[in-house]
Specification:
Layout (H helix, E strand, L loop, with lengths): L1 H12 L4 H25 L5 H8 L1 E2 L2 H6 L3 H4 L7 H22 L1 H25 L1 H4 L5 E2 L3 H14 L4 E4 L3 E4 H15 L5 H22 L6 H12 L19 H6 L5 H14 L6 H12 L2
Antiparallel strand pairs: 1-2, 3-4
Helix pairs in contact: 2-6, 6-7, 6-9, 6-15, 7-9, 7-11, 7-12, 9-10, 9-11, 10-11
InterPro entries: DUF6576 (IPR046483), Peptidase_S54_rhomboid_dom (IPR022764), Rhomboid-like_sf (IPR035952), Rhomboid_protease_S54 (IPR050925)
Protein name: Rhomboid family intramembrane serine protease
Keywords: Hydrolase, Membrane, Protease, Transmembrane, Transmembrane helix
């Protein structure tokens, strides 16, 4: 048992391990719910439904006011095996791409912002679109909106990157992303209408995130410090003092002297990846991309 706890703790001690941390949080929540459901079933109590309502995102704004944390907890919560397996596999495959090209911090930003965007669209549809209003109140769980944000972001950044799929062979990830988006559009009038609407919210965020990043704007900057604090709770490393320079006194020469690439250089590299793939980069460009992923 101590070995398991040590493995979990070590996973959060590494600052560049965000992909595994996200997957681990989802798995830990899933396992905890399985254990609770089993214990409560043996005790012949019906408290499990109450526990799930504390974690699920309600469509009713009044319920949300009483459970505001659910706008975050819902995208770390799963109840079915197939649901979490599908989401975690996609998170791993596409999250590896985002982590390799943009760094761990951007991956966390996409995951959280994708989940929040999915929640916003879900709430808007259930409270303003007649088809959803007549369906009555509902609750939502699952990381699908967050995961689809990462999938679409990867496809926007690297549209011609190829995965070798079982039975299908090599497929460009832009077609995988389009398929999943269209699947969510078709499912927006099905049994899981609210969930599929949330997927589309995540997909839209993923596209906008990369477009803004190429324009020099990081939508997830405010998330970085929060995630670093959460990860630091599991770490024994001493706190580091960070000093900030006045942007007004910073110069391009100072940036170059520090070895960190400028935003223009990063934009050029990202455009080159989008057009010709990662392998088209020179060794120097790959090193610049790596340094950029570590600098914030």
């Amino acid at each position: 048992m101590n070995s398991i706890f040590n493995d979990i703790k070590n996973a959060f001690n590494r600052h560049d391990n965000s992909l595994n941390q996200l997957i681990l949080i989802n798995i830990l929540v899933f396992v905890a719910l399985i254990l609770l459901r089993t214990i409560l079933w043996l005790a012949q109590t019906d408290y499990f439904g109450t526990i799930m309502s504390w974690l699920s995102l309600p469509s009713d704004p009044v319920d949300l006011l009483w459970h505001p944390w659910t706008i975050f907890t819902y995208f770390f919560t799963h109840r079915d095996w197939l649901h979490i397996i599908f989401n975690m596999l996609n998170l791993y495959w596409f999250g590896m791409l985002i982590r390799e090209y943009l760094g761990s911090k951007k991956l966390v930003s996409l995951y959280i912002l994708g989940g929040l965007s999915g929640a916003v669209l879900y709430l808007l549809f259930y409270n303003f679109v007649p088809f959803f209003i007549q369906r009555g109140s509902a609750e939502m769980i699952g990381a699908s909106a967050s995961v689809l944000a990462i999938i679409v972001a990867a496809a926007t950044l690297l549209p011609d990157y190829t995965f070798n799929l079982l039975l299908l062979g090599p497929v460009k990830i832009k077609w995988i992303a389009w398929f999943l988006v269209l699947l969510s559009v078709s499912g927006a009038v099905g049994d899981n209408a609210g969930g599929n609407v949330a997927h589309l919210g995540g997909a839209l965020l993923g596209y906008i995130f990369i477009r803004q990043l190429k324009n020099g704007s990081d939508m997830g900057r405010f998330i970085h410090s929060t995630w670093a604090y959460i990860s630091g709770l599991f770490s024994r490393r001493p706190r580091m003092k960070v000093s900030y320079k006045n942007p007004a006194t910073a110069t391009y020469a100072a940036s170059s002297a520090s070895g960190k690439p400028s935003q223009n250089e990063i934009d050029f590299i990202l455009d080159k990846i989008s057009k010709s793939g990662y392998e088209s980069l020179s060794k120097e460009e790959k090193q610049k991309l790596f340094r950029a992923s570590q600098k914030e």
